[in-house]
Design brief:
heterodimer; A: alpha+beta; Ubiquitin-like (UB roll); FAD/NAD(P)-binding domain; Arc Repressor Mutant, subunit A; 5 domains; six-stranded mixed beta sheet; elongated; B: mainly beta; Folate-binding fold; four-stranded antiparallel beta sheet; two-stranded antiparallel ribbon; 6 strands
Chain lengths: 1001, 91
Amino acid sequence: MAENLRVKSSEFIDETIRVSFKFNGKEYYGFKGDTLASALLANNVHLVGRSFKYHRPRGIMTAGSEEPNAIVQVNDNTDRTEPNVRATELEIYEGLEASSQNCWPSVNFDIGGINNVISPFLPAGFYYKTFMWPASFWEKYEYFIRHSAGLGKSPKDKDPDIYDHRYIHCDVLVVGAGISGILAAKNAAKNNLKTLLVDEKNELGGATIYQNREFNKIENQSSSDWIKKEIQELKKLNNLEIKTRTSVAAFHGYNYLLARENLTDHLEKKEKQGKIRQRLLKIRAKKVILATGALERPLIFNNNDRPGIMLSSAVKKYADFYGVVSGKKNVFFTNNDSAYESALCLHNKGIKVEAVIDIRENSGSKIVKAVNDAGIPIHWSHTIVDTKGYKKLNSISAMKLSNDGSSVTGSKIDIVCDCLGVAGGWTPAVHLFTQSGGKLTFDETNKVFLPNKYSSEQISVGSCNGDFKIKEIINNLSINLKEFLNIEKTDFDNVTVESEDDNSKRNIWLLPSDKPLGKTKPFVDYQNDATAKDIKLALREGFRSIEHVKRYTTTGMGTDQGKLGNMHALGIIADTADVKMGELGTTTFRPPYTPLTFGTIVGRNVGEYFDVFRRTPMNDWHVENKAEFENVGQWKRAWYYPINNESMHEAVQRESMAARETAGILDASTLGKIDIQGTDASEFLNRVYTNAWSKLGIGKCRYGLMLNEDGMVYDDGVTTRLGENHYIMTTTTGGAANVLGKLEDYLQTEWPELDVYLTSVTDHYATASICGPNSKKILNKIIPDLDLSEENFPHMSFKDTQIENIKCRIMRISFTGEHSYEINVQANYGKAVWEKCMEAGKEFNITPYGTETMHLLRAEKGFIIVGQDTDGTMTPIDLQMDWIVSKKKYDFIGKRSLYRSDTMKEDRKQLVGLLTDDPNIVLEEGAQIVSELNQSPVNMLGHVTSSYYSPNLKKSIALAVVRGGKNMMGKKLFIPMENKTINVTIANPVFFDTENKRLNA
Amino acid sequence: MFLINCPYCGERDQHEFKAGGEAHIERPKQPTELSDDEWAEYLFMRKNIKGVQFERWNHAHGCRKWFNMVRDTSNDQIKLIYKMGEKPPSE
């Protein structure tokens, strides 16, 4: 705890505020502004995790979102625990607790480390090859694989945090607030464009802000001083919104982007309380400017993964930005000039740089000369052939490269060091560009993929577009910005810029060692432990497509999605298979750029807000009367009304008997209702229903069956003719929206000549359906002056009337087979009318019943429920409803399909009744039906679609679909269950009151 | 996520719309006159082009109107939007 390796006061770190935190149970401190990674490095903690497959010790590699190794579990054992957090992005706060993932029992002693020793037996595709046979063993293997694989732990309890969504519409979105992004945003906003600037970091200015690079000058100032002034001016612009700690996760078509704004993760616990944790921004931008920068590449050499081996730019950032010393004895290994900047930076801060190892033959640039002048030894044409140190790097060995770079010669140089900065060049961050549908081109000179063809109004600027020198960045940005934003000039058109003079590099994707490849460990994907050997093995085994090699070797499949190593994987494949990298292409870049929590994705739509739900106007009454509810589509429907601790079965039996013996009442408000008007309304119904409608008298009701064009039953319901050109159609509860959509489709696209208007009025009416032998008396009590005689108000007719002052439509229709009335009133009167019915029905013991009893009662009558007894493969003929299909009509939707050879087959599944030989056994819905036992393979004839115990018949009844069932009346069949076989007989699906006497009772 | 220019409402987000399959497949006027094969051609057969495709779309959560769209399925570029009943462009 004593150690805190800092070089100087950094302006980005507030050393007056100490922040204590725990890592792997041990207490440390850092300062306000530190990330977990910088604070750990300051405490000389390099070992932060174990690798996925070999459990090799791993350290902090980067200083950004591309980090493959330092991924931690945050606040373990609390309900706010989160896995896979990058220590390099996690800002520390008082009380933070984090721990290593993927190590057991501890990061210092890890049992899985044995895998490192036996690694020759764990090649690419190891899991595929080993655990796939015998297939029955997979379950046993899986247990161990899952136990040893370290993907972090997900929280067990409900996420206590609040997440939010926000839509943003802007003229220009700028992604990335490095020098390019700052200048682009400033000039867009200054030109009256509503601009949004986002950056994943908490500071603006990217790498420019903290780098004091001697050879980079803008207007004769250091580039960092110059950018600070630009940022000050930028913040004054009122046309601009700036969002830091905001990472763009996805770039979809038509400039639609999703970004995660992190609001409280950097705050300590008490400050987090009650605040929105993260906000998902849904951004639609007219124009997008991507200034996402570039990621430094590592180099691929033997044992390149030890703790202490870092990206050269990360070593520099830790020193410059956080004032943290990553190592006391540093070596840099490079193929370009970048490492020299890092070396010089450390040297100027008084940190020892032992050597620079450069695979190039030489470089004459100013920066190289400056390093040379500082007395730092440079080993040209050398490569590192091995590194040593198990939990922390302690030395490296270098040798001279052969001229072609494929082997090494001469004697070994050993250098003692505790930190190795690796610089393999820069990879433009084209992730978002490609997500949007952009096409890349390969630049052979710089070995980078660059944006080529844009899919929308967007440009990539700065280093993500391949401009690496500050002079190029500023000059090209000025030209591109003027053209893209259609502006005359920018405010940096004439600034003077000096930058580095040399950018020579030598690219070798896989560096040789003095050992044969088979005896080395050159890691390409650190997180997934994929080595160059694995990639070569995959190629030897015949894989060619980059997408296949990726999946076989798991290269690029970690939580970091291979941000560091993917280019090397491509390079090694190209070299080995002797193809051009441009032709090989890249793997698909998929969102999100960095992982998102589910909370952010769902926002406020959790718990009861997950989906909207609909309640009927009588809902309060159902609640007061202790109804149990079921979800039907978005509706909450009363399911049954238990009294005195009744079970569902008991309640349903009681309700069913009451409905037939005296009176029942059902809330049918959820049925879909479509108001149909127009001079062609009758013709329209003729075309959409299977039966004829022209002759239906005004004031009459008719049941209709609607088919799809393929002849299959789609929906059903009763339609009433209210006037000459006015109908009201009812649909199933769940089908209402789709039926309206389908009818609109035909009206607008096939029959625009018809004069018909459709309006959904489902929510406008409340419906109480009273049924049973006493329903007539009850209605008479409510509306004494309405003539309820058979002559005036017969079955299947309708009356427009009033209950006191409440206007109502009453249909005498029945879904139970009982004498019944459906009372429709304006929705606001629903509960009042329901209560009136209850009051009037009291002397008849009127019994409210729910959907379950409704289903039972209709099953007794053999009435179908579309969606339960049909499944989109049943024609009306299959349902034995031939009577409803008009033979006379020339056409209706689905008619032609009823005469297709397939729909006319005799052995189609047909709806039948089913009775169990033992009347007390109630079949399970979905149970399979067979005619032969002991048959192999068994010939499945069909299945049970509806099944109940009927209290009115005192026996079990069921509806089923059975192949050729229509001609099997009385046939004995079997239903084999897990531990018994049930004998059943095919019967008439109308079980109760087959002569329909009760309708008019 | 597309930005779709509904011919009745203007530019709206894709989530307000529903795709309705291939456009310009007219329902036969006299289905009973057709052979099984001819009817099946109408009922089941749809193109699935990589490239320029004619589609039906419905502003389901808006004005509920159907319209036609010409879209390049290879890059999701919407080339043209026109009302129902209007002639498709020849090119």
